[in-house]
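Hello forum,

I keep getting stuck at the same step: I have a sequence, I want structure tokens, and every attempt I make locally crashes halfway through. Rather than fight my setup again tonight, could one of you with a working pipeline run this one for me? It's a single chain of 234 residues.
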Amino acid sequence: MAVNVDIVYKTVLLILNKEQRGYMTPDEFNKIGSQVQREIFEAYFEDLNQQVRIPQTEMEYSDRVAITDEKIAEFKVENTATHTSGGVFTLPTNLYRLGSVTYQPTGPYPVELQRVGRADFYNIRKSPLTRPTTNHPVYLYEDNQLLVYPNTINADVSVQYVKKPEDVNWAFTTGSLGQLLFDSANATDFELHNSERTEIILKILLYQGIVIRDPQIIQVAAQKAQQEEVNEKS
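Reply #2:
Ran it on my machine without issues. Output:
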């Protein structure tokens, strides 16, 4: 469930205008909004790492590990790796973190490839007992590519991964009076979970306060953003 880019932009403008703090252009909003989205997105993984160390409640809807994983789930996708040469596959360009890799051999069920390091990738093939087969393949992950062994595998390799968020875009057309009209057909929403809308608005205001050099906006937005974070993690 994405966060509507038009609602966020209009809310930010409403707050700025109410406090007589100036105007934020669509270009400024798109750049700052994309930066804010990346910050929130990248923080999910550290948050998840911290939460798994803490005992969690068994109450439904209150398990913070599950809540954080639900936010990351907005970016979980499956795609096909592109074969380029013997055993070499190129990964999708929007990949952020690689999950499992599977291969569909002849048979009803796919098999999961085992990830190995470079030393193991070379040594594991030396012995007939450990040499990978199409039913037990391995891969080396380097430079956004998969080196798959046995290298007779040249198709049907799928990857499950967390993708990068796309840049947000409050697209617009110009009306007859020179006004900016929201163009929903060409807009790109925030891909973050809908629960992040308040956090997004506060962080955009924080950055806009820096842009226009308004210490009061910076202070208020920073305090509220910090309180939001404390409430989520404490």
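The two ends are 25 Å apart (CA to CA). If your local run keeps crashing, start a new thread with the error log.
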